[in-house]
Amino acid sequence: MRDQLKLSMELKAILASDDLNTFMQAKVKRGGVYGKEKKTILHLAAKYCQSIAIPYYCVYKLKVNPKTKTKRSNSSALHYACIYGKLQLVEFLVSSCKVPVDIQRKHGETPLLLAIRHNHNELSEFLISKNADLNVKDSKDWTLAHWAAKNGNSGLLSKLIKLGAPFQGVTKSSEYCLHFAASSGNADIVKALFPYFYPFACGEKGTVLHYAKGNWEIVEWVISNTIWQKMPRLSILLDIGASSSLIFQYCKEEINLGVVLMYDRADLLEILYINKKIQIQLLVHEKLGPRCTEKIKKLERWENVRGLLFVYKHQNMYAKVPLSLTREISEYI
Protein backbone atom coordinates (compact mmCIF):
# COMPACT_ATOMS: atom_id res chain seq x y z
CA MET A 1 0.00 0.00 0.00
CA ARG A 2 1.42 3.34 -1.04
CA ASP A 3 1.92 6.08 1.54
CA GLN A 4 -0.76 8.81 1.51
CA LEU A 5 0.88 12.23 1.70
CA LYS A 6 -0.31 15.80 2.13
CA LEU A 7 0.63 18.31 -0.54
CA SER A 8 2.60 21.04 1.19
CA MET A 9 2.46 24.67 0.13
CA GLU A 10 6.22 24.47 -0.47
CA LEU A 11 5.92 21.57 -2.93
CA LYS A 12 2.96 23.23 -4.64
CA ALA A 13 5.04 26.39 -5.11
CA ILE A 14 7.95 24.37 -6.52
CA LEU A 15 5.68 22.70 -9.06
CA ALA A 16 4.17 26.04 -10.08
CA SER A 17 7.66 27.53 -10.51
CA ASP A 18 8.68 24.83 -13.03
CA ASP A 19 12.11 24.76 -11.36
CA LEU A 20 13.43 21.24 -11.94
CA ASN A 21 16.57 21.71 -9.83
CA THR A 22 14.55 22.83 -6.82
CA PHE A 23 12.13 19.97 -7.40
CA MET A 24 14.97 17.44 -7.42
CA GLN A 25 16.26 18.85 -4.12
CA ALA A 26 12.81 18.48 -2.55
CA LYS A 27 13.37 14.72 -2.38
CA VAL A 28 9.86 13.76 -3.42
CA LYS A 29 9.04 10.29 -2.11
CA ARG A 30 8.86 7.74 -4.90
CA GLY A 31 5.53 5.93 -4.98
CA GLY A 32 3.79 8.42 -2.73
CA VAL A 33 0.19 9.51 -3.36
CA TYR A 34 -1.48 12.72 -2.26
CA GLY A 35 -4.82 13.31 -0.56
CA LYS A 36 -7.97 11.20 -0.48
CA GLU A 37 -8.06 11.21 -4.27
CA LYS A 38 -4.61 9.55 -4.17
CA LYS A 39 -3.00 11.64 -6.88
CA THR A 40 0.52 10.83 -7.97
CA ILE A 41 3.15 13.52 -8.21
CA LEU A 42 2.58 13.38 -11.98
CA HIS A 43 -1.09 14.31 -11.52
CA LEU A 44 0.01 17.33 -9.47
CA ALA A 45 2.64 18.27 -12.04
CA ALA A 46 -0.01 18.08 -14.76
CA LYS A 47 -2.07 20.60 -12.82
CA TYR A 48 0.59 23.06 -11.66
CA CYS A 49 3.54 22.86 -14.08
CA GLN A 50 3.63 24.79 -17.34
CA SER A 51 6.58 22.98 -18.98
CA ILE A 52 7.24 19.25 -19.21
CA ALA A 53 10.60 19.27 -17.39
CA ILE A 54 9.20 18.10 -14.04
CA PRO A 55 6.64 15.66 -15.56
CA TYR A 56 9.48 14.18 -17.66
CA TYR A 57 11.54 13.71 -14.49
CA CYS A 58 8.55 12.12 -12.73
CA VAL A 59 8.10 9.55 -15.49
CA TYR A 60 11.73 8.66 -16.25
CA LYS A 61 13.50 9.25 -12.93
CA LEU A 62 10.84 8.70 -10.28
CA LYS A 63 9.29 5.94 -12.39
CA VAL A 64 5.71 7.21 -11.98
CA ASN A 65 3.37 5.23 -14.21
CA PRO A 66 1.73 7.82 -16.51
CA LYS A 67 -1.34 5.60 -16.86
CA THR A 68 -2.06 5.53 -13.11
CA LYS A 69 -5.54 6.77 -12.22
CA THR A 70 -6.77 8.54 -9.10
CA LYS A 71 -9.01 6.75 -6.64
CA ARG A 72 -12.35 8.58 -6.87
CA SER A 73 -12.60 10.06 -10.35
CA ASN A 74 -10.35 7.51 -12.08
CA SER A 75 -8.42 10.36 -13.67
CA SER A 76 -5.03 9.93 -15.31
CA ALA A 77 -2.42 12.65 -15.59
CA LEU A 78 -3.57 13.02 -19.21
CA HIS A 79 -7.07 13.93 -18.01
CA TYR A 80 -5.60 16.57 -15.69
CA ALA A 81 -3.46 17.98 -18.50
CA CYS A 82 -6.55 18.27 -20.73
CA ILE A 83 -8.58 20.01 -18.03
CA TYR A 84 -5.85 22.59 -17.45
CA GLY A 85 -4.96 23.04 -21.12
CA LYS A 86 -1.36 21.75 -21.01
CA LEU A 87 -0.78 21.04 -24.71
CA GLN A 88 2.94 20.24 -24.45
CA LEU A 89 2.31 17.78 -21.63
CA VAL A 90 -0.55 16.14 -23.53
CA GLU A 91 1.75 15.65 -26.51
CA PHE A 92 4.38 14.11 -24.22
CA LEU A 93 1.93 11.75 -22.49
CA VAL A 94 0.26 10.61 -25.71
CA SER A 95 3.24 10.47 -28.06
CA SER A 96 6.12 9.52 -25.73
CA CYS A 97 4.41 7.76 -22.81
CA LYS A 98 1.82 6.03 -25.00
CA VAL A 99 -1.09 6.87 -22.73
CA PRO A 100 -4.21 5.79 -24.68
CA VAL A 101 -5.76 8.81 -26.36
CA ASP A 102 -9.25 7.60 -25.39
CA ILE A 103 -8.52 6.63 -21.79
CA GLN A 104 -11.71 7.21 -19.77
CA ARG A 105 -12.50 8.65 -16.35
CA LYS A 106 -15.19 7.41 -14.00
CA HIS A 107 -18.08 9.00 -15.91
CA GLY A 108 -16.80 8.12 -19.36
CA GLU A 109 -15.00 11.38 -20.12
CA THR A 110 -12.09 11.00 -22.52
CA PRO A 111 -9.22 13.49 -22.86
CA LEU A 112 -10.85 15.00 -25.96
CA LEU A 113 -14.19 15.44 -24.21
CA LEU A 114 -12.45 17.25 -21.33
CA ALA A 115 -10.40 19.41 -23.69
CA ILE A 116 -13.53 20.55 -25.54
CA ARG A 117 -15.47 20.93 -22.29
CA HIS A 118 -12.78 23.35 -21.03
CA ASN A 119 -12.58 25.07 -24.43
CA HIS A 120 -8.94 24.31 -25.25
CA ASN A 121 -8.85 24.57 -29.05
CA GLU A 122 -5.25 23.68 -29.86
CA LEU A 123 -5.31 20.76 -27.47
CA SER A 124 -8.54 19.50 -29.02
CA GLU A 125 -7.04 19.79 -32.50
CA PHE A 126 -4.04 17.72 -31.42
CA LEU A 127 -6.18 14.94 -29.93
CA ILE A 128 -8.35 14.87 -33.06
CA SER A 129 -5.17 14.52 -35.13
CA LYS A 130 -4.31 11.48 -32.99
CA ASN A 131 -7.60 9.86 -34.03
CA ALA A 132 -9.40 10.40 -30.74
CA ASP A 133 -12.91 8.94 -30.74
CA LEU A 134 -15.42 11.50 -32.02
CA ASN A 135 -18.43 9.43 -30.97
CA VAL A 136 -17.69 9.50 -27.25
CA LYS A 137 -20.28 10.61 -24.70
CA ASP A 138 -20.20 10.72 -20.92
CA SER A 139 -22.55 9.13 -18.39
CA LYS A 140 -25.02 12.01 -18.88
CA ASP A 141 -24.92 11.52 -22.67
CA TRP A 142 -23.03 14.75 -23.32
CA THR A 143 -21.15 14.54 -26.61
CA LEU A 144 -18.28 16.58 -28.01
CA ALA A 145 -20.78 18.68 -29.95
CA HIS A 146 -22.81 19.45 -26.83
CA TRP A 147 -19.76 20.94 -25.12
CA ALA A 148 -18.62 22.86 -28.20
CA ALA A 149 -22.13 24.35 -28.53
CA LYS A 150 -22.30 25.20 -24.82
CA ASN A 151 -19.01 27.08 -25.10
CA GLY A 152 -20.21 28.91 -28.21
CA ASN A 153 -17.21 27.52 -30.08
CA SER A 154 -18.46 27.73 -33.64
CA GLY A 155 -15.13 26.83 -35.27
CA LEU A 156 -14.67 23.64 -33.30
CA LEU A 157 -18.32 22.64 -33.60
CA SER A 158 -18.19 23.12 -37.37
CA LYS A 159 -15.07 20.95 -37.60
CA LEU A 160 -16.61 18.19 -35.48
CA ILE A 161 -19.70 18.10 -37.69
CA LYS A 162 -17.60 18.01 -40.87
CA LEU A 163 -15.62 15.08 -39.43
CA GLY A 164 -18.85 13.19 -38.78
CA ALA A 165 -19.14 13.63 -35.02
CA PRO A 166 -22.75 13.19 -33.83
CA PHE A 167 -24.48 16.48 -33.03
CA GLN A 168 -28.21 15.74 -33.02
CA GLY A 169 -28.24 13.56 -29.90
CA VAL A 170 -29.98 14.45 -26.66
CA THR A 171 -28.59 14.42 -23.13
CA LYS A 172 -30.28 12.71 -20.20
CA SER A 173 -31.65 16.15 -19.32
CA SER A 174 -33.41 16.25 -22.72
CA GLU A 175 -31.08 18.97 -23.96
CA TYR A 176 -29.86 19.35 -27.53
CA CYS A 177 -26.95 21.26 -29.04
CA LEU A 178 -29.44 23.94 -30.05
CA HIS A 179 -30.35 24.57 -26.41
CA PHE A 180 -26.71 24.97 -25.41
CA ALA A 181 -25.96 27.18 -28.41
CA ALA A 182 -28.81 29.48 -27.37
CA SER A 183 -27.48 29.74 -23.82
CA SER A 184 -23.95 30.41 -25.08
CA GLY A 185 -25.04 33.61 -26.79
CA ASN A 186 -23.54 32.68 -30.16
CA ALA A 187 -26.24 33.64 -32.65
CA ASP A 188 -24.34 32.22 -35.62
CA ILE A 189 -24.38 28.71 -34.12
CA VAL A 190 -28.10 28.98 -33.36
CA LYS A 191 -28.85 30.03 -36.93
CA ALA A 192 -26.74 27.19 -38.33
CA LEU A 193 -28.20 24.50 -36.08
CA PHE A 194 -31.87 25.52 -36.08
CA PRO A 195 -32.88 23.62 -39.24
CA TYR A 196 -31.62 20.34 -37.75
CA PHE A 197 -33.78 20.34 -34.62
CA TYR A 198 -37.45 20.26 -33.65
CA PRO A 199 -38.06 23.95 -32.87
CA PHE A 200 -40.26 23.32 -29.82
CA ALA A 201 -38.08 20.68 -28.13
CA CYS A 202 -37.85 21.28 -24.39
CA GLY A 203 -34.88 20.63 -22.12
CA GLU A 204 -34.98 20.85 -18.35
CA LYS A 205 -35.01 24.68 -18.56
CA GLY A 206 -37.72 24.84 -21.21
CA THR A 207 -37.71 25.84 -24.88
CA VAL A 208 -34.87 27.26 -26.93
CA LEU A 209 -36.19 30.71 -25.96
CA HIS A 210 -35.79 29.86 -22.28
CA TYR A 211 -32.19 28.84 -22.94
CA ALA A 212 -31.59 32.10 -24.80
CA LYS A 213 -32.59 34.16 -21.73
CA GLY A 214 -30.46 37.28 -21.59
CA ASN A 215 -29.23 36.81 -25.16
CA TRP A 216 -31.82 39.07 -26.74
CA GLU A 217 -30.34 39.03 -30.24
CA ILE A 218 -30.98 35.29 -30.34
CA VAL A 219 -34.46 35.64 -28.83
CA GLU A 220 -35.44 38.21 -31.45
CA TRP A 221 -34.01 36.14 -34.29
CA VAL A 222 -35.90 33.00 -33.20
CA ILE A 223 -39.26 34.70 -32.78
CA SER A 224 -39.02 36.69 -36.01
CA ASN A 225 -37.30 34.24 -38.40
CA THR A 226 -38.56 30.78 -37.50
CA ILE A 227 -41.87 29.00 -37.00
CA TRP A 228 -41.96 30.63 -33.56
CA GLN A 229 -43.29 33.78 -35.24
CA LYS A 230 -46.62 31.97 -35.68
CA MET A 231 -46.85 30.76 -32.07
CA PRO A 232 -48.00 32.41 -28.82
CA ARG A 233 -44.90 33.82 -27.18
CA LEU A 234 -46.00 36.19 -24.42
CA SER A 235 -45.80 33.79 -21.49
CA ILE A 236 -42.32 32.65 -22.53
CA LEU A 237 -41.04 36.20 -22.95
CA LEU A 238 -42.43 36.99 -19.51
CA ASP A 239 -40.80 33.84 -18.14
CA ILE A 240 -37.38 34.97 -19.33
CA GLY A 241 -37.77 38.58 -18.23
CA ALA A 242 -37.86 40.21 -21.66
CA SER A 243 -38.07 43.99 -21.79
CA SER A 244 -41.39 45.75 -22.23
CA SER A 245 -40.25 47.12 -25.60
CA LEU A 246 -39.46 43.64 -26.93
CA ILE A 247 -42.77 42.28 -25.62
CA PHE A 248 -44.81 45.07 -27.20
CA GLN A 249 -42.92 44.68 -30.48
CA TYR A 250 -43.66 40.96 -30.85
CA CYS A 251 -46.62 40.20 -28.55
CA LYS A 252 -48.75 43.32 -28.55
CA GLU A 253 -51.94 41.43 -29.41
CA GLU A 254 -51.34 38.82 -26.68
CA ILE A 255 -50.94 41.23 -23.79
CA ASN A 256 -53.73 41.15 -21.21
CA LEU A 257 -54.05 42.46 -17.68
CA GLY A 258 -54.29 39.03 -16.07
CA VAL A 259 -50.92 37.89 -17.38
CA VAL A 260 -49.29 41.22 -16.54
CA LEU A 261 -50.48 40.97 -12.94
CA MET A 262 -49.51 37.28 -12.70
CA TYR A 263 -45.91 38.13 -13.58
CA ASP A 264 -45.97 41.34 -11.50
CA ARG A 265 -44.74 43.42 -14.46
CA ALA A 266 -45.15 47.00 -13.33
CA ASP A 267 -43.54 48.31 -16.53
CA LEU A 268 -46.20 46.65 -18.69
CA LEU A 269 -48.93 47.79 -16.32
CA GLU A 270 -47.83 51.39 -16.79
CA ILE A 271 -47.85 51.03 -20.59
CA LEU A 272 -51.40 49.62 -20.47
CA TYR A 273 -52.40 52.60 -18.32
CA ILE A 274 -50.78 55.14 -20.66
CA ASN A 275 -52.56 53.54 -23.61
CA LYS A 276 -55.87 53.72 -21.68
CA LYS A 277 -56.29 49.93 -21.63
CA ILE A 278 -56.98 49.85 -17.88
CA GLN A 279 -58.54 51.97 -15.16
CA ILE A 280 -56.64 52.29 -11.91
CA GLN A 281 -59.80 52.44 -9.84
CA LEU A 282 -60.71 48.90 -10.89
CA LEU A 283 -57.39 47.50 -9.66
CA VAL A 284 -57.24 48.77 -6.09
CA HIS A 285 -58.91 45.65 -4.73
CA GLU A 286 -56.98 43.18 -6.91
CA LYS A 287 -54.39 40.86 -5.39
CA LEU A 288 -51.17 42.36 -6.72
CA GLY A 289 -47.47 41.63 -6.50
CA PRO A 290 -45.15 44.13 -4.79
CA ARG A 291 -44.00 45.86 -7.97
CA CYS A 292 -47.49 46.30 -9.37
CA THR A 293 -48.76 47.45 -5.96
CA GLU A 294 -46.13 50.18 -5.85
CA LYS A 295 -46.89 51.18 -9.43
CA ILE A 296 -50.63 51.41 -8.70
CA LYS A 297 -49.92 53.75 -5.77
CA LYS A 298 -47.85 56.02 -8.01
CA LEU A 299 -50.46 56.01 -10.75
CA GLU A 300 -53.22 56.77 -8.21
CA ARG A 301 -51.20 59.71 -6.96
CA TRP A 302 -50.65 60.86 -10.55
CA GLU A 303 -54.40 60.87 -11.14
CA ASN A 304 -54.83 63.04 -8.05
CA VAL A 305 -52.07 65.39 -9.24
CA ARG A 306 -53.63 65.51 -12.69
CA GLY A 307 -56.93 66.48 -11.07
CA LEU A 308 -55.26 69.33 -9.22
CA LEU A 309 -53.64 70.52 -12.44
CA PHE A 310 -57.05 70.61 -14.10
CA VAL A 311 -58.32 72.85 -11.30
CA TYR A 312 -55.36 75.22 -11.61
CA LYS A 313 -55.80 75.29 -15.39
CA HIS A 314 -59.54 75.90 -15.17
CA GLN A 315 -58.95 78.84 -12.85
CA ASN A 316 -55.96 80.08 -14.86
CA MET A 317 -53.74 79.80 -11.79
CA TYR A 318 -50.66 78.04 -13.23
CA ALA A 319 -48.41 80.65 -11.68
CA LYS A 320 -49.67 79.66 -8.22
CA VAL A 321 -48.89 75.94 -8.50
CA PRO A 322 -46.93 75.06 -5.30
CA LEU A 323 -43.25 74.19 -5.73
CA SER A 324 -43.78 70.81 -4.01
CA LEU A 325 -46.46 69.93 -6.57
CA THR A 326 -44.22 71.10 -9.42
CA ARG A 327 -41.47 68.78 -8.22
CA GLU A 328 -43.91 65.90 -8.01
CA ILE A 329 -45.19 66.58 -11.50
CA SER A 330 -41.62 66.43 -12.84
CA GLU A 331 -41.42 62.80 -11.70
CA TYR A 332 -44.15 61.88 -14.14
CA ILE A 333 -42.74 63.72 -17.15
Automatic annotation (TrEMBL):
Keywords: ANK repeat, Repeat. ANK repeats lie at residues 107-139. SMART domains: ANK. The keyword Protein biosynthesis does not apply. SUPFAM superfamilies: Ankyrin repeat. InterPro entries: Ankyrin_rpt, Ankyrin_rpt-contain_sf. PANTHER family: ANK_REP_REGION DOMAIN-CONTAINING PROTEIN, ANKYRIN REPEAT, PH AND SEC7 DOMAIN CONTAINING PROTEIN SECG-RELATED. This is Ankyrin repeat protein. It comes from Blepharisma stoltei. The lineage of its organism: Eukaryota, Sar, Alveolata, Ciliophora, Postciliodesmatophora.
